[in-house]
């Protein structure tokens, strides 16, 4: 925790979408360790409850008095009506949110244009783009009213480097980049901060989801190099959130040391 000025995060309330695994889960635990409260949002309730327990343990271990409130919220960000009804699911003591981490997102398949199932296209846009926009619209209103707030959007290197077999996912992450950049410019006359985190290869459930549960195909993505972990990205997110109020980390691109582009990586022969 020495990297962070944890005092700036004490007693803050953070809402993280996609908190049931990977980057979102690791980020929740790290905020818990820093003395923040966390609203954990995703579709899988059991997984959220496990992350809630991990947050409770991390907070206890920190010995901090501040924070320590962790609430799972089962919600599908591709469901606009569910987002509109979000406040009914938030415990009354956690209604003032300070930091929104828009992290929920996924990719399915590597099919080329012409062969991509329309339901896959719709699902990725509904979650990665429309869900992120709906969550942001809801919170920008709150943040303007309370004259504070930090929106941290999880983009990807796929948001500036399109690659073969990633047309739809890349299109969604380019959209996240454009939306986030416009919003940062629109909010320049406010105290609201806007950050985009753009990771490269992170070993989470991401590839398992991409390859529809095929463990060997998912593992092959990381063969011969050391990928990033959810913890690595969580450290960047919590670090950005812990900067002083006049400092806005606009964007961060994070690669594993042996990766330098969407399709450029050095792998030791297996
Ligand atoms: N892993 C990588 O290499 C990588 C690289 C760059 C960027 N990213 C981005 O990082 C973010 C997190 O991914 P990850 O690597 O941590 O993958 P992950 O382990 O698969 O986590 C994805 C999270 O998003 C949630 N989610 C998916 N669809 C949702 C929906 N409709 N509503 C609510 N929650 C939803 C999942 O929870 P439920 O299934 O429980 O809903 C899960 O908690 C994504 O935006 C991804 O695009 C990942």
Automatic annotation (TrEMBL):
Pfam families: adh_short (PF00106). One of its GO terms (molecular function) is oxidoreductase activity, acting on the CH-OH group of donors, NAD or NADP as acceptor. Coiled coil: none annotated. The keyword NADP applies. Keywords: NADP, Oxidoreductase. Belongs to the short-chain dehydrogenases/reductases (SDR) family. This is Short-chain dehydrogenase/reductase family protein. It comes from Mycena sanguinolenta.
């Amino acid at each position: 925790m020495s990297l962070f000025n944890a005092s700036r995060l004490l007693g803050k309330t953070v809402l993280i979408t996609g908190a049931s695994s990977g980057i979102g889960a690791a980020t929740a635990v790290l905020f818990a360790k820093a003395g923040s409260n966390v609203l954990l949002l995703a579709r899988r309730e059991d997984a959220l409850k496990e992350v809630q327990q991990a947050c409770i343990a991390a907070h206890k271990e920190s010995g901090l008095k501040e924070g320590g409130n962790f609430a799972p919220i089962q919600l599908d960000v591709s469901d606009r009506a569910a987002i509109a009804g979000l406040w009914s699911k938030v415990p009354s003591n956690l209604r003032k949110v300070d930091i929104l981490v828009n992290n929920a997102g996924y990719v399915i398949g590597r099919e080329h244009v012409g062969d991509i199932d329309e339901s896959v296209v719709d699902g990725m846009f509904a979650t990665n783009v429309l869900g992120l926009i709906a969550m942001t619209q809801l919170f920008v209103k709150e943040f303007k009213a309370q004259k504070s707030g930090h929106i941290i959007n999880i983009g990807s290197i796929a948001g500036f480097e399109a690659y073969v077999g990633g047309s739809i996912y890349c299109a969604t992450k380019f959209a996240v980049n454009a939306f986030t950049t416009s919003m940062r410019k629109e909010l320049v006359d406010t105290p609201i901060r806007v950050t985009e985190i753009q990771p490269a290869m992170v070993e989470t459930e991401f590839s398992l989801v991409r390859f529809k549960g095929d463990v060997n195909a998912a593992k092959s993505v990381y063969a011969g190099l050391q990928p990033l972990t959810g913890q690595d990205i969580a450290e960047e997110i919590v670090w950005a959130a812990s900067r002083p109020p006049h400092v806005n980390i606009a964007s961060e691109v994070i690669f594993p040391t042996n990766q330098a582009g969407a399709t450029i990586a050095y792998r030791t022969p297996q």
